[in-house]
Structure formats: structure tokens, C-alpha cells
Design brief:
Blueprint (H helix, E strand, L loop, with lengths): L14 E2 L22 E5 L25 E5 L2 H6 L2 E3 L4 E7 L22 E8 L2 E8 L11 E2 L4 E4 L10 E8 L2 E3 L30 E8 L5 H6 L6 E2 L5 E8 L5 E9 L2 E10 L5 E8 L9 E11 L2 E12 L3
Parallel strand pairs: 1-11, 13-19
Antiparallel strand pairs: 2-3, 3-10, 4-9, 5-6, 5-8, 6-7, 7-10, 10-11, 12-14, 14-17, 15-16, 15-18, 18-19
Length: 327
């Protein structure tokens, strides 16, 4: 998800450093979901001090200057049903914000949220300079008050779509004396990765896999790989008489991994397809779709999902949207 800039709520919390870890909190999963089943980790802290990025295992699951851990739901429907955000450790609510709408960010709305990119959020003080920050929560869901004492697992609110994001998830930042700490590699030296030997700050070691999805999108024909990589394959509006095709751009898949592609529109599901990746490369894409039915697609909004799985565990999930215009 997009990088969180400096803001009043974040209180200049975002300098990557290696502080002393004495009295560090032990963290529980900050969301009421099952990793690999109903949620997955999309992005980790960027440990590359330069313009590039790498996660704590020296792989691709981060973005330049990303300052937290992003745990995503598998669908917008799950967000609408309600998934609780949980305090990762005991502490006191130091700051909060509510009242921002759950709206995917666009270029047209980016300026309107300047300074509030974290969206609806809660910041918890755990003592000894340690804090956790929970971003992008659902509008009206904040369930705690400033100054309130919370325990590990206390519901803080629900996963939402507020601030600088376009998919439902919780962004968790961990801080020590105002410096960003990667909870998977809390003693990391700047630029160092791949040295994790235990659970980090987590009470229980969380699973990691380097495979994932760069992107997913709708097109009106099976695109070529160059168009997928450049973004030129993406179509956001079309007419009722065109095919609807969804593609997914995968990295580091293994033989036997499964890609699932689904799409729905105003009248329900339009296709469901699974494919086993028998001999994947470091990068690949797959596409699946349908020709327009007789009479054309009903006008309206269509949404698709591409999911990468291994042995029944979700490794990555991306959504795509397209509008079929009325003739």
C-alpha cells in the first residue's frame, strides 16, 4: 500500500534506526483473521536505505520507504462484514482519529487527504519509548478512547479503506523513541536483511514466503507480457460488447502453486477459474476471461480477484475493477 508520509498523528515516527531493544513489547497479530486463510501479509518494512526496496528477507515484498507491515483481507466483502483490528500489546491509547470515509484513493482524491494518509487510526504507547500505530481503519469503527488502557487483543476498531490506500488492510508501524522498527528483524542494521533467526518481536513466528503478485488488472483481450509489466494492459472502462479478461503478474511462484481468478458484476459471478503453475519462472503472468454474452454485459461495476495459493495457503491476492458503460 502507499507509503505513509510524516503527519501530526504519526508524530515524526519514521526514521529507520537500530535502538536498544530492552523492554520491547511482545506482539500478537493485530487483526482478527487467520493468516493464509482469511488474510495475508502484503508488504513489510523497507530495509533498503536507498531508492530501491527490500523486505527483511532481502526479497520484493516491500515498497520504497514503506514503514510498516500491511496485513490484507481477501475481499471488500470481508471488510464490509467487519474484521476487528486488535491491540498488538498492552498499553495506553495515545492518539486516535476517526471520521474519514472508506474510499479507495485516486489521483483526484490524493490531495484531499494530505496530512491524513494514515486514515482513521489509533496509536498506542507501550512504555519505554515503544509505540504501535494502526492505520486505514473503517470509518466510525474506532472502539477506544484517548488515554484508555488496553490489553493485547483488545478491539481497537475494524479494518477499513480510509486514507492513502485502495484495498482493505491494516498497516501496523512499530516504533522505538520515534524510530521505525521492523518487528520481523528488530535489530537490523541499515541496509541489512536476510539475518532473521527467530520470531522477532512477535509472540509466535509468522509465516513468510517470497512469492507474490505485482499486480492484477482487467483487459479486453489477453495482453502481452510487456503491456502487463508497463501497465498499458489495464482497462478501466469498456463497452458491453467486449470480452472481459483478468490478468495477474506473479513473482517467485513454485511448481504446483495455484492461481485462482474470479470476477463478478451487477448480476453476480461471471467466471471462476483455477490454474496450476507447473513450470513458473521468476516472473510470469496468466490471464483468463470470457467473451461478451449475447446482448452484451450488463452496464455497471465489475470486480475481479487474482489469488496465488500454495497447498491451500493464500500467498497473495489482488483485485481489479472495470466499468461497463451503457451504450
Amino acid at each position: 500500500m502507499p507509503t505513509l508520509p510524516r503527519s501530526a498523528l504519526a508524530a515524526a515516527l519514521f526514521t529507520l534506526a537500530t535502538p536498544a531493544l530492552a523492554e520491547s513489547p511482545t506482539l500478537a497479530l493485530p487483526i482478527d483473521c487467520a493468516l493464509g486463510q482469511t488474510c495475508y501479509i502484503e508488504d513489510y518494512v523497507d530495509l533498503d536505505p536507498g531508492p530501491g526496496q527490500h523486505d527483511y528477507m532481502c526479497s520484493l515484498k516491500s515498497r520504497d520507504d514503506h514503514r510498516g507491515t500491511d496485513i490484507h483481507l481477501l475481499s471488500f466483502e470481508a471488510m464490509e462484514t467487519g474484521v476487528n483490528v486488535l491491540a498488538a500489546a498492552p498499553g495506553r491509547v495515545a492518539a486516535l482519529r476517526d471520521g474519514m470515509p472508506d474510499t479507495p484513493v485516486t489521483e483526484d482524491t490524493r490531495d484531499a487527504i494530505a496530512g491524513r494518509e494514515c486514515g482513521n487510526a489509533v496509536r498506542i504507547d507501550h512504555g519505554s519509548g515503544w509505540q504501535t500505530l494502526y492505520c486505514h481503519m473503517k470509518n466510525g469503527s474506532i472502539a477506544v478512547t484517548e488515554g484508555q488502557q488496553v490489553d493485547s487483543g483488545t478491539p481497537l476498531g475494524q479494518v477499513g479503506l480510509s486514507g492513502l490506500t485502495n484495498a482493505p488492510h491494516i498497516h501496523l508501524s512499530v516504533l522505538k523513541d520515534g524510530d521505525i522498527i521492523d518487528p520481523f528483524l528488530p535489530d537490523a542494521e541499515p541496509g541489512v536483511c536476510g539475518t532473521a533467526t527467530g520470531p522477532g518481536l512477535w509472540a509466535t513466528a509468522l509465516p513468510y514466503d517470497r512469492a507474490g503478485l505485482f499486480t492484477a488488472g482487467f483487459s479486453t483481450a489477453v495482453p502481452d507480457f510487456d503491456a502487463v509489466k508497463s501497465g498499458d494492459a489495464r482497462v478501466t472502462e469498456t463497452t458491453p460488447d467486449t470480452p472481459l479478461v483478468i490478468y495477474g503478474h506473479v513473482f517467485y511462484a513454485q511448481p504446483g502453486d495455484t492461481m485462482r481468478v474470479t470476477a463478478s458484476g451487477p448480476e453476480g459471478e461471471i467466471f471462476y477459474h483455477t490454474e496450476t503453475l507447473d513450470a513458473p519462472q521468476a516472473q510470469l503472468f496468466r490471464a483468463y476471461g470470457r467473451r461478451a454474452p449475447e446482448g452484451g454485459w450488463p452496464p455497471g461495476a465489475y470486480r475481479g480477484y487474482v489469488t496465488l495459493e500454495r497447498a491451500g495457503q493464500v500467498l497473495a491476492n489482488r483485485h481489479a475493477d472495470i466499468i461497463v458503460l451503457a451504450e
